[in-house]
Amino acid sequence: MLHRMYNTSSDSVYMELRGKILSRELKPAQRLLEVKIANEMGVSRTPVREALRRLANEGLVKIVPNSGARVASPSSHEMDNSYSVREYLENMSVELACRTGMDKRTLERLDGLVRDGDAAYDAGDVDAFLAANNDFHRIIAEAGKNYVLSEYVDNIIQRTNVYIYFYSKFIEAENKSSGEHRAILRAIAQRDRIGAQELMKQHLERVHAMFSEAAAKAKAKEKEKE
Fold it and tell me: Facing residues of 61 across strands?
């Protein structure tokens, strides 16, 4: 969960809009008019604009020049492209992590993140689950000492997280990611580059397939309502 206190107008607008997007009160592709939001929330347009930029950085909102902001509506094609890029980047990050090696402290930190993910899953805490998952992948990327790569990995993780919010009520019916993360961690600890790369590939392919199936079901339901 998000524990930081939100005191500024921008923070308040951000949290309210984020909550409405995640609860589906604001629908995918719905326009987000700055003036209307500002009037409804009793603030100026500046904090609204700042909040929309933050949501755009998370992938929950899309800002189009000369058109304004809309709630994101990721397509299956966009999802496929995102996971193709993520698989390529994380294949490289695993390779570099194995070549560089990890010290005991980093391995213990990764193991702790897997346990944090387990606890968050059991508690049904999506934000905490995602935070642990994201940090696990980021630390592997950082271990390779290629900071351009780790920056790109961070960016693609944020992009693919969006599909969780739009296409899945919770991350997965069964916490398969935990076992997959532990297997990846063991392979990296043993500096088994080929094994670690294959395990990461299988992990990302499974998650991608899960969201593709969820997206197809969501679109089928939308057609039934038409």
Answer: 71
Q: How far does Cα 113 stand from its chain's mean position?
A: 16
Amino acid at 113: L
Q: Determine the Cα–Cα distance for residues 65 and 123; give it in Å rounded to an integer.
A: 40
The residue ranges of DSSP E strands in 28-75, in sequence order, are: 31-32, 61-64, 68-71
For residue 8, the 8-state DSSP code is S
Are 40 and 132 in a shared domain? no
Distances (CA, A) of 171 to 10, 62, 121, 129, 167: 28, 23, 8, 8, 9
> Tokens representing 190?
């043993």
Residues 180 and 82 placed together within one structural domain of the fold: yes
User: Do the domain assignments include residue 2?
Assistant: no
Q: Which two tokens stand for residue 172?
A: 């997965």
Q: Give the residue from 97, 171, 103 showing the smallest Cα distance to 134.
A: 171
Residue with tokens 């094994």: 195
Nearest 10 degrees: CA dihedral of 89, 149, 182, 127? -100
In this predicted model, what pLDDT tens digit does every residue of 170-199 receive, in sequence order?
556 788 999 999 999 999 999 999 999 999
pTM, full prediction:
0.79
Bridge partners, 70 (sequence order): 31, 62
Q: Which residues pair with 63 in a beta bridge?
A: 69
Domain interval for residue 38 = 9-71
**CA–CA distance, 86 with 81 (Å, rounded to integer):** 9
Give me the amino acid identity at 107: L
Type of residue found at 37 = I
Is the model's pLDDT at 6 over the cut of 50? Answer: no
